[in-house]
């Protein structure tokens, strides 16, 4: 028996074992759930958004491969049941969700919008944080003068005391007015991603 007669079946056996191991590894990978992705909460009230806070949230999510969870905080008066339909304000929130999703999708960031109801902003924030327990960060905008595009000092102080994980507070730009939805092309860090 020559070495060629022994070597060919041996190589076929090694190739077969390697191919079987590869197929088994792929099947095992398909059966396992996908790895959990980090989530960044982006709570907001009303229909105005801080351009700076939105850009900061998208940059963080893109850099970390995280999902943005914008959370509309709907306040329900004490006289009404907490689960009462809040039609008009939810319609406004959906237009904000859509705008956030369009901005984030341009750079490949996923969005998972939520609506949290509460008797006031803090109560709704508590409900949102209880729903999204896997959030690693919360990004909030500080309100600018005369606008409803962020949170007041007292609400931010409450959040800093009560939130788990990191809280990033983004101040409004004193020079430029806060826009509802600016172009992502204006952000130099995102411009490179859009060009790719």
How would you sum up this structure, described in words?
With 196 residues, the protein is an alpha/beta fold. It has helices at residues 3-31, 51-64, 87-105, 121-131, 153-162, 188-195, and strands at residues 39-44, 67-75, 114-118, 135-141, 166-170. It has a five-stranded parallel sheet with strand order 3-2-1-4-5, with helices on both faces.
Brief description of this entry?
The protein has 196 residues and is of the alpha/beta class. The protein is built from six helices and five strands. α2 links the parallel β1 and β2.
Question: Which helices and strands, and how do they pair?
Answer:
Elements lengths: L2 H29 L7 E6 L6 H14 L2 E9 L11 H19 L8 E5 L2 H11 L3 E7 L11 H10 L3 E5 L17 H8 L1
Parallel strand pairs: 1-2, 1-4, 2-3, 4-5
Helix pairs in contact: 4-5
Name its key features.
disordered C terminus, five-stranded parallel beta sheet, 196 residues, single chain, 2 domains, 5 strands, alpha/beta, Rossmann fold, globular
CATH architecture of the largest domain: 3-Layer(aba) Sandwich
- Sheet with the most strands: spatial strand order: 3-2-1-4-5
What percent of residues are in strands? 15-25%
Average predicted confidence as pLDDT = 77
Return the domain count: 2
Q: Percentage of helical residues?
A: 40-55%
CATH homologous superfamily of the largest domain, by name?
HUPs
CATH class wording of the largest domain: Alpha Beta
Reported by name, the CATH topology of the largest domain is: Rossmann fold
């Amino acid at each position: 028996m020559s070495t060629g007669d022994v070597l060919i079946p041996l190589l076929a056996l090694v190739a077969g074992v390697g191919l079987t191991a590869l197929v088994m590894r792929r099947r095992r990978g398909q059966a396992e759930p996908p790895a959990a992705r980090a989530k960044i909460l982006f709570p907001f009230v009303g229909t105005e958004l801080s351009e700076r806070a939105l850009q900061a949230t998208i940059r963080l999510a893109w850099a970390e491969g995280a999902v943005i969870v914008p959370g509309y905080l709907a306040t329900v008066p004490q006289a009404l049941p907490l689960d009462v339909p809040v039609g008009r304000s939810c319609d406004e929130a959906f237009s904000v969700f859509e705008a956030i999703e369009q901005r984030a999708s341009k750079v490949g960031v996923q969005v998972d919008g939520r609506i949290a109801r509460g008797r006031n902003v803090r109560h709704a924030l508590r409900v949102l944080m209880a729903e999204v327990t896997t959030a690693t960060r919360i990004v909030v905008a500080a309100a600018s003068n005369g606008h409803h595009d962020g949170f007041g000092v007292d609400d931010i102080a409450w959040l800093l005391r009560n939130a788990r994980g990191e809280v990033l507070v983004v101040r409004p730009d004193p020079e430029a007015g806060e826009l509802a939805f600016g172009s992502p092309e204006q952000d130099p860090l995102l411009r490179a991603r859009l060009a790719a």
